[in-house]
């Protein structure tokens, strides 16, 4: 097995923001630090930018040894991000980057994006007709701008053979370790993960770990009802119950909730219960049966069915990904506030639902 050359496209290098460093540093940490006891030779890392460092704006600049022509001939090309204006303002992806990516792809390089780097691959046409992902906050924009791309906002990363894309933040790290696993084998990837003090493997099909509750809203009439429901998920709840508490008819409540959250009351309750189950799996070692009871999903079989369908992994695998089996002690009388603070009204109304 050969590691090969990894070329990283450093974009907007004359005015980077602090948060642009995250995905870039992930790729550099995985592929740039030699690990001779694991594999020798390790990867040959190139940092490639579109222009030499010059006067900086409010951000900062990086000097790189290679220009974008350094992407040519690499075995793997990684785009960690695109300039913020591309995502936030709809600005064009730098044309020189697009052309360099096309040349690299045509030469047979394995093309990889982390987070918003997917916009660059899409602009170059590399994602046309393929399934791809990005951070869930940007997948709607990605799908709208590039209709030829099948955008999946529900996964950590997508491996389509010679083209791979990941969601943001730690999902990028998952994808980088996945590449090491493909190139150098599971043992090397597992040992590297241990050194980086991270889970050795999270399947790309696993759902992005985000809150499935309520979008940002200033609707003070609805928020107290939703807060109350979020604190009583272990009890049987119906649309009639919530409507009565809101002081409106069930039909009015249904329309109101759907207008504010973009989903139906029953789906909202299911998302809340899944979010509660996620929290319990992350923070306690309660048996699956108890987690299903406290989250209002009833039986363990029902929890597994919904969790696998909506989150993408079983409850057991989800728990392992977070704590490696070192959860907090079980607490049999959890219903009294769930022994961890119930979500505040601000937390409920400020949480974001993945659409």
Q: In CATH, what is the class of the largest domain?
A: Alpha Beta
- Termini distance? 41 Å
CATH evolutionary superfamily of the largest domain: Class I glutamine amidotransferase (GATase) domain
Q: Classify the secondary structure makeup into a structural class.
A: alpha/beta
Write a concise synopsis of the structure shown.
With 355 residues, the chain is of the alpha/beta class. The protein is 41% helix and 10% strand.
Structure description:
It comes from Streptosporangium brasiliense. Residues 329-355 are annotated as: Disordered. Keywords: DNA-binding, Transcription, Transcription regulation. InterPro entries: Class_I_gatase-like, DJ-1/PfpI, Homeodomain-like_sf, HTH_AraC, HTH_AraC-typ_CS, INH-QAR. It contains 15 helices and nine strands. The protein has 355 residues and is of the alpha/beta class. It has two domains: 5-195, Class I glutamine amidotransferase (GATase) domain (Rossmann fold); 223-350, Orthogonal Bundle (Arc Repressor Mutant, subunit A). The strands form two sheets. It has a seven-stranded mixed β-sheet with strand order 3-2-1-4-5-9-8, sandwiched between helices. Strand 6 (131-132), helix 5 (139-145) and strand 7 form a beta-alpha-beta unit. Helix 6 runs antiparallel to helix 7 (186-195). The model is unreliable at 52-59, 209-218 and 324-355 (pLDDT under 50).
């Amino acid at each position: 097995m050969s590691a090969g050359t990894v070329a990283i496209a450093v974009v907007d290098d004359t005015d980077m923001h602090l948060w642009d460093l995250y995905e870039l540093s992930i790729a550099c940490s995985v592929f740039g630090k030699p690990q001779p006891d694991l594999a020798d030779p390790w990867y040959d890392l190139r940092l490639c930018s579109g222009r030499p460092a010059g006067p900086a704006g409010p951000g900062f600049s990086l000097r790189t040894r290679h220009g974008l022509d350094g992407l040519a001939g690499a075995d793997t090309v990684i785009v960690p991000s695109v300039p913020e204006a591309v995502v936030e303002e709809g600005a064009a992806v730098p044309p020189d980057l697009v052309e360099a990516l096309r040349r690299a792809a045509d030469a047979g390089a394995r093309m990889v994006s982390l987070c918003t780097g997917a916009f660059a691959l899409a602009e170059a046409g590399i994602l046309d007709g393929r399934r791809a992902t990005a951070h869930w906050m940007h997948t709607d924009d990605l799908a709208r701008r590039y209709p030829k791309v099948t955008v999946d906002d529900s996964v950590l990363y997508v491996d389509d053979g010679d083209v791979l894309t990941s969601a943001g933040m730690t999902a990028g790290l998952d994808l980088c370790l996945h590449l090491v696993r493909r190139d150098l084998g599971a043992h090397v990837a597992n040992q590297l993960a241990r050194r980086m003090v991270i889970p050795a493997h999270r399947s790309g099909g696993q759902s992005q770990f985000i809150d499935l509750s309520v979008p940002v809203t200033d609707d003070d009439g609805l928020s107290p009802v939703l807060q109350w429901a979020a604190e009583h998920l272990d009890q049987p709840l119906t649309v009639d119950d919530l409507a009565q508490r809101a002081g409106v008819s069930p039909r009015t409540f249904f329309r109101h909730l759907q207008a504010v959250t973009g989903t139906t009351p029953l789906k909202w309750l299911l998302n809340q219960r899944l979010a509660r189950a996620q929290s319990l799996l992350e923070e306690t070692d309660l048996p699956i049966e108890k987690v299903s009871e406290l989250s209002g999903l009833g039986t363990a079989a029902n929890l597994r069915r919904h969790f696998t369908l909506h989150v993408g992994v079983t409850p057991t695998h989800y728990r392992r990904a977070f704590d490696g089996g070192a959860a907090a002690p079980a607490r049999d009388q959890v219903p009294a506030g769930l022994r961890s603070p119930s979500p505040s009204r601000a937390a409920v109304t400020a949480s974001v639902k993945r659409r």
